[in-house]
Amino acid sequence: MEELIKSELVYSGKLIKVRLDEVKLPNGKISKREIVVHRGAVAILALDNNNIILIRQYRHAAGKFMWEIPAGTLEEGEDPLECAKRELLEETGYVANKIEKLIQFYVAVGYCTEIIHLFIARELKKLSQKTEEDEFINVYSIPIDKALEMIKNNEIEDAKTIIGILMMKNVLR
Amino acid sequence: MEELIKSELVYSGKLIKVRLDEVKLPNGKISKREIVVHRGAVAILALDNNNIILIRQYRHAAGKFMWEIPAGTLEEGEDPLECAKRELLEETGYVANKIEKLIQFYVAVGYCTEIIHLFIARELKKLSQKTEEDEFINVYSIPIDKALEMIKNNEIEDAKTIIGILMMKNVLR
């Protein structure tokens, strides 16, 4: 256990906040912890028969285009399931007849509070994409075995996407 | 593509920095991107016959104890392979006769530059753990099938750990 002694808000932005916390360790010593505070997010493993829906978009943090499963940040107080339906429609144009939660995970538990709720969506119907003003997203339907190959050769290098695809191979078969 | 227009350092800490960037979007509009800057890290999937080495430690960002594979942040300019050997020894007390890189991945590419380099370590020999002053880590050797079960029931909820265990099931068999 680490007992919180002091907490200072050192940055407050639109997407994230940063806290500098002081904690008391089990040996009684004091240590500092930098913590990125994030509202949490959803990611959606959308299955179209034996294909998976992947999106491709430019990511400024990586400085390149990335392959990802659809995902998005929770609005304040938003239910993760509603968020998953909303993001799936906005980013890909698909609605799912069946959508359920698989697991949740911390993306970087050493310093970040973000939890991603991973959903699996099935029985898809294509409507039209409704991206936000600052999103430019291409949508692809990729055979599952091809997606697995893209993990092995590291063409896919996004953590939530790797988890989604590998979960499907392990859990659903 | 997003063209960088302006970059402001809004927080500079020991582990992370935060930049507030302005970028020009493909439609010519300007948007802001909050970016957590992180040096990168390593994580090690250490195999002990049909067992995997897991550690358990309190994580302040989550407010609880977590199951994880051994991992750690790169020192400035450190080679990921050397870092992986160092962290494996420090956190678990094991040295590996064989250690090689599997893949790398971004933990939260929407806002964070952190890349984790995932290594697989085999032919382990147990020496003694050398944790840092602020680390309190318990080490366990867990059967692979048990670890997979802990992912499915969400007892394991750390992204790099889920990726490591699932990669092993998919890639190595």
From TrEMBL, chains A, B:
Source superkingdom: Archaea
Pfam families to which the protein is assigned, alphabetical: NUDIX
Nudix hydrolase domain: residues covered: 37-164
Gene Ontology molecular function: pyrophosphatase activity
InterPro entries to which the protein is assigned, alphabetical: Nudix_hydrolase, NUDIX_hydrolase-like_dom_sf, NUDIX_hydrolase_CS, NUDIX_hydrolase_dom
A biological-process GO annotation: nucleoside phosphate metabolic process
Keyword DNA-binding attributed: no
UniProt keyword annotation of Thylakoid present: no
Cofactor entry: Mg(2+)
Annotated SUPFAM superfamilies: Nudix (SSF55811)
Name of the molecule in the record: ADP-ribose pyrophosphatase
Keywords: Hydrolase
